[in-house]
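User: Hi! I'm working on a homework problem where we have to compare a predicted structure to a textbook description. Could you give me the structure for the chain below?
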Amino acid sequence: MTGICDRCGAGSWTYKMSKFNSDELCSICQKDEKLAPGYAKADAAERAALKAQDYNFEGIGLSAADHHFLTMCMRQRCEG
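Assistant: Happy to help. Predicted structure tokens:
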């Protein structure tokens, strides 16, 4: 393993940056994030930042709804 997922703590060989913040995510957390209620807004904000050549964009942050959704996804994986 190369490291630990910032969101769930699982070890993974590959990571991708979150659209919401600077967390590095494993593939499972990436899939969950794409289903979060604010994902489209976070993705659009990142694309706009890149278009404006802001390569240090830190994301829009997790809203309460997004945080709750992602917490529930992790909880279901642990219980499942």
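For your comparison, note the following. Strands lie at 3-4, 11-12, 16-17, 24-25. The first strand starts at residue 3 and ends at 4. Good luck with the assignment!
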